[in-house]
Amino acid sequence: MTEKIKWGIIGCGNVTEFKSGPAFNKVESSELVAVMRRNAKLAEDYAHRHKVPKWYSDADELINDKDVNAVYVATPPSSHALYAIKAMKAGKPVYVEKPMAASYEQCQEMNAVSKGTGVPLFVAYYRRTLPGFRKVKTLVEDGTIGKPLMVNIMLLRPPNAAEADQDNPAWRVQPEIAGGGVFFDLASHQLDFLDFLFGPIQKVSGTAKNFGGLYKAEDTVVAQMEFENGVLGSGTWSFVTDHASTRDVIEIIGTKGRIEFSTYGHEPILLFKERDFLEFPYINPENIQYNLISNVVKTLRGEETCVSTGETAARTNQVMERIVY
What we know:
Dihydrodipicolinate Reductase, domain 2, 2 domains, alpha/beta, 12 helices, Rossmann fold, 14 strands, six-stranded parallel sheet
């Protein structure tokens, strides 16, 4: 790989405004040189606001730009495979948003191209690199709570305005675009992190329902699972509850204590032991994908090994499909 990783973004929408986009210029040996959006005016506006030299309204033009040597795909999941495969066939490493694709089958296609071309593929499951989640991993691995026995996930909240708009539904609740409903968007981060923590999920089953009637996709999901290391897990997700039922907690129970932490609230991590109660602060980088983007850049430069690849991310798509379908 060349000395500097020169990125092009396909799909410079909301996620790239603060979570990821600025980090490409902040990471050492990394530079954002081009962006693409189908709406040319919006692509040009993004480029001007973020001081990006080039902008396109055609993805192929960005992929074939000689100054771009790595591509970040930040479109909705239904087009992840299309653009990632084109970029890899052009010899350019890809960092793709999560979930990896709209289906496990598409994930397999992406990984097959990566393997066949030898071009790396990474996925934006950035919680694997955040200090709070890393602290949870340390507490589990150093035996602070003894042998881990089980993990329970609970993510409940009311629908937001975009999800409740039946005349113009959000893409996240359209299975043909997102792969499923809000579950695919939000639970994917949780399931991927637990894969990172305990190893791949070996057994999983679940039931999915639509209780709210706001859109066609599932809005309530219950699942049970078993991880590679024998830990048993359960999950409850609903995106049509009232505010009083809002929950965002993952609980890990071991033989000598338990850990509680949130996925999206980024509240302090809580450690409960027989005679101890400790809190650990949750500190994020300014741009929340910074740590993972740094990990990707260093991997491309031969300095590190990335913690979130197409191979690891595909497992989460497979698990979600087994739960919902």
